[in-house]
Amino acid sequence: MSALSNSRFLKMNGLGNEITVLDLRGTSLLVSAEEARAIAADPRSRFDQLMVLHDPVTPGTDAFMRIYNTDGSESGACGNGTRCVAWAMVADPVMSRLVGNGLVLETKAGLLPVERVSDTVFTVDMGPPRLAWNEIPLRDPYPDTRAIAVETRLAEAPELQRPSAVSMGNPHAIFWVKDAQAYDLRAIGPKLEHDPVFPERANISLAQVVDPGHVVLRVWERGAGLTRACGSAACATLVAGVRKGLTDRRATLSLPGGDLLIEWRETDDHVLMTGPTELEHEGAFSPALFKGAA
Ligand SMILES: N[C@@H](CCC[C@H](N)C(=O)O)C(=O)O
C-alpha cells in the first residue's frame, strides 16, 4: 500500500489551471512519478500540476515545493500553483501555520516570495527571467534568444518557426501570432514541445499582442497538455514581449481561464504575477488509487 493512501489533499485551481495541493511537511515521504500519475488519473484529484509541500530547506523560507505534471515529470516553476499553495498556507484550517499574509516558498529553481492581495488573490515574485541559451535550456548556443529557430515543420502552420525562448525556472517558447485562436494547439503543441532544439522539452505559447498593455495567450504545457492558464508562461511572454519591443513592462495577459497581471520590474529584474485562486474541494487519496504504483 502507498504511504500516500488516505493523505488529505486540496483540489484547487488558479484561473482554471487545475492544481492539487498535498502537504507532506513533517514527513520524509516523496511522491514518485507513478504515484503522481495515479493521482492525476482520479477525477477527484485530477491536476495539471500537483504541488507537494515539504519542510523548508533554506533558512527563512516557509516550505519547499516539488511540482509534478500530469505525466509524472517535475517542473521548477508553476505560477498558478504557487498562488494556490500560498492560499492553503495562509487560509486552509489544516495547512495554515503562518501568521500574516506574506510567505516565501522554494522550488528547485529558486525562492518565490508571495503576498496576499485580498482573500483569494496573491502576487508571486517569480524572480528574474533566465535568458541565456544554456539556462533555458536550448540545444544550440544562440547569442540572442529573442528569436530562435525550431526544426519542426508544421504542415498546418508553417509560419510557426521563430519563437522567443525564456526560462522562468522552466522552459518556455513563445510564438508571436496575429490570432491565437486560429491554431489547433492540441495538435501542434506536442510536436513543438518535443522539438529537438529543447533538450528538456518546452511549454509552448501562442501570443497575440492586442496592444502593449494586453496580450492574449494560449498555452500547451510541457507534461500536462492544453491548460486553461499557465502563470509562468504569462511571465515568460511578458518578458519576451518587452525584449522584442512589443509590450510594456506591465501588462494584462488574457488566458482562456481569465486574466493575470504581470510586471517585469526594472529595479531588480524580477517578474511579478498577480492572480486569483479557488478552492474546489478537499479529499483523501483512496488506497485503491495507488494499485500498481511504486
Ligand atoms: N501551469 C504552470 C506551469 C507548469 C509547469 C510546466 N508544465 C512545466 O513542466 O514546466 C504555471 O502556472 O506556471
Overview of this structure, please?
It is a single chain. The longest helix has 13 residues, at about 80-90. About 15% of the residues lie in helices and about 35% in strands. The protein contains four helices and 17 strands. By secondary structure, it is α+β, with helices and mostly antiparallel strands. The model has no long low-confidence stretch (mean pLDDT about 95). It has two domains: about 10-125 and about 275-290, Diaminopimelate Epimerase, Chain A, domain 1, CATH 3.10.310; about 165-270, Roll (Diaminopimelate Epimerase, Chain A, domain 1). The protein has a 17-stranded mixed sheet that branches. The structure holds ligand LBFN2T5F. The site of the ligand N[C@@H](CCC[C@H](N)C(=O)O)C(=O)O has 20 residues, from helix 2 and helix 4.
pLDDT < 50 stretches: none
Q: For the CA atoms, what is the radius of gyration? A: 18 Å
Which CATH-level-2 architecture of the largest domain? Roll
Number of strands: 17
Strand-and-helix sequence, N→C? EEHEEEHEEEEEHEEEHEEEE
Integer tally of domains: 2
Ligand identities: the ligand N[C@@H](CCC[C@H](N)C(=O)O)C(=O)O
Please summarize the sheet with the most strands: 17 strands, mixed
Please estimate the helix content: 10-25%
The CATH topology annotation of the largest domain reads as: Diaminopimelate Epimerase, Chain A, domain 1
Q: Please, what is the average pLDDT?
A: 97
The secondary-structure class comes to alpha+beta
Helix segment tally: 4
Give the DSSP E fraction (strand runs of 2 or more residues): 35-45%
Name given to the CATH homologous superfamily of the largest domain:
Diaminopimelate Epimerase, Chain A, domain 1
Overall spatial form: globular
N- to C-terminal separation? Answer: 9 Å
